[in-house]
């Protein structure tokens, strides 16, 4: 479908352009504001978002846009762009390199394009529905390691679901090999997609954080569902399991009654 290919090309360039701006300003003077939900935003979140939105509107002025900082721009198109200009803003503020730009495109109720750019590492992750997942043009795939050999990423805002997260961690901690937290959904999901970790468990992630990464994981041969096994359409805020197929059923069985 030509329309998908055109949007994928624009998404990739926009992600790289925004990422390069972020890298050029990394560890420079940052103005930090607090949003209504308590999360932080910088002038570079806004600037990166404008770079991406201007690219979209230049080529697809009638498409819908859902973005973390600007909210909704809902028109009449069946295409919706879902944008996180900096996923890992708190890392960016603190000079931690785990941050990236996420752009997904939804057609009707289904994510069909996912693009993630990690500026520090110069890693471009891309996926189109039914076409596989790629890192800098090279095909990637989830691992096939079993649960007992797995690296689990367990990375949500714990104060929002403290009891449930601690209960889940207690059930999983002795079943996996080790546990990591990166503070960035795009970093976590790209690691699952390329087999550097076997799973990410999230209790309260936003759709602009995970939309591109969800498609990436699935196109890399993995699984992405909520805690009861449901797939798309996704909610604006979502708990989920992103994993390889080897560990998924075990994780689902453990987590299905947590929330």
Automatic annotation (TrEMBL):
<dbReference type="InterPro" id="IPR020583">
    <property type="entry name" value="Inositol_monoP_metal-BS"/>
</dbReference>
<feature type="binding site">
    <location>
        <position position="68"/>
    </location>
    <ligand>
        <name>Mg(2+)</name>
    </ligand>
</feature>
<dbReference type="GO" id="GO:0046854">
    <property type="term" value="P:phosphatidylinositol phosphate biosynthetic process"/>
</dbReference>
<dbReference type="InterPro" id="IPR000760">
    <property type="entry name" value="Inositol_monophosphatase-like"/>
</dbReference>
<protein>
    <recommendedName>
        <fullName>Inositol-1-monophosphatase</fullName>
        <ecNumber>3.1.3.25</ecNumber>
    </recommendedName>
</protein>
<feature type="binding site">
    <location>
        <position position="86"/>
    </location>
    <ligand>
        <name>Mg(2+)</name>
    </ligand>
</feature>
<dbReference type="GO" id="GO:0006020">
    <property type="term" value="P:inositol metabolic process"/>
</dbReference>
<dbReference type="GO" id="GO:0007165">
    <property type="term" value="P:signal transduction"/>
</dbReference>
<feature type="binding site">
    <location>
        <position position="209"/>
    </location>
    <ligand>
        <name>Mg(2+)</name>
    </ligand>
</feature>
<dbReference type="Pfam" id="PF00459">
    <property type="entry name" value="Inositol_P"/>
</dbReference>
<keyword id="KW-0460">Magnesium</keyword>
<keyword id="KW-0378">Hydrolase</keyword>
<dbReference type="GO" id="GO:0046872">
    <property type="term" value="F:metal ion binding"/>
</dbReference>
<keyword id="KW-0479">Metal-binding</keyword>
<comment type="similarity">
    <text>Belongs to the inositol monophosphatase superfamily.</text>
</comment>
<dbReference type="InterPro" id="IPR033942">
    <property type="entry name" value="IMPase"/>
</dbReference>
<feature type="binding site">
    <location>
        <position position="87"/>
    </location>
    <ligand>
        <name>Mg(2+)</name>
    </ligand>
</feature>
<feature type="binding site">
    <location>
        <position position="84"/>
    </location>
    <ligand>
        <name>Mg(2+)</name>
    </ligand>
</feature>
<dbReference type="InterPro" id="IPR020550">
    <property type="entry name" value="Inositol_monophosphatase_CS"/>
</dbReference>
<dbReference type="GO" id="GO:0008934">
    <property type="term" value="F:inositol monophosphate 1-phosphatase activity"/>
</dbReference>
């Amino acid at each position: 479908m030509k329309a998908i290919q055109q949007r994928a090309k624009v998404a990739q360039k926009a992600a790289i352009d925004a990422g390069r701006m972020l890298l050029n300003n990394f560890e420079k003077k940052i103005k930090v504001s607090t949003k209504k939900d308590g999360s932080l935003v910088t002038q570079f979140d806004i600037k990166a978002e404008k770079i991406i939105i201007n690219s979209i509107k230049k080529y697809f002025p009638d498409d819908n846009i859902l973005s973390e900082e600007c909210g909704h721009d809902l028109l009449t198109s069946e295409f919706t762009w879902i944008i996180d200009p900096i996923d890992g803003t708190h890392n960016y503020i603190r000079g931690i390199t785990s941050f990236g730009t996420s752009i997904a495109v939804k057609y009707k109720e289904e994510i069909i394009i996912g693009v993630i750019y990690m500026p520090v590492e110069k890693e471009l992750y891309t996926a189109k529905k039914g076409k596989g997942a790629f890192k800098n043009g090279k095909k990637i795939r989830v691992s096939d390691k079993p649960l007992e050999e797995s690296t689990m990423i367990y990375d949500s805002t714990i104060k929002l679901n403290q009891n449930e997260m601690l209960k889940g961690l207690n059930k999983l901690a002795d079943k996996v090999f080790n546990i990591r937290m990166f503070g960035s959904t795009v970093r976590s999901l790209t690691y699952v997609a390329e087999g550097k970790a076997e799973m990410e468990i999230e209790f309260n992630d936003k759709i602009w954080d995970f939309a591109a990464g969800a498609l990436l994981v699935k196109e890399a041969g993995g699984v992405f569902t909520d805690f009861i096994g449901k797939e798309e359409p996704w909610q604006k805020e979502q708990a989920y399991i992103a994993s390889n197929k080897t560990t998924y059923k075990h994780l689902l069985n453990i987590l299905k009654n947590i929330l």
